[in-house]
Specification:
Length: about 100
């Protein structure tokens, strides 16, 4: 299993606008082969900081997702409203 933890910092004035983009992205991604979990959380202290927790069956499923044209188009809508580049950390099972 592969786990991704991603952090997006959204421009405050665009937070409500991008909320629908995130909903669409979550709904679409959860249906992808090998997606075990795909959730977005909002920081309780900095409301424009969003954390993705993604779980994938294996690296090939994740790689297919990242190359998916629909995903690429959806994320492009979000990316232009970020204040900085998305931070991504990738983890494999330990125990």
């Amino acid at each position: 299993m592969i786990v991704l933890i991603c952090e997006d910092v959204v421009k405050r004035e665009k937070l409500e606008e991008v909320r629908e983009y995130y909903r669409e992205l979550v709904e679409y991604t959860r249906k992808q082969p090998g997606c075990l979990a795909y959730d977005v959380y909002q920081d309780e202290e900095r409301d424009n900081v969003l954390i993705f927790v993604e779980k994938w069956a294996d690296a090939s499923c994740l790689d297919d997702h990242l190359k998916d044209n629909v995903y690429i188009e959806m994320f492009a809508k979000i990316e232009k409203h970020l204040t900085e580049e998305e931070k991504v950390r990738r983890y494999g099972e330990f125990v």
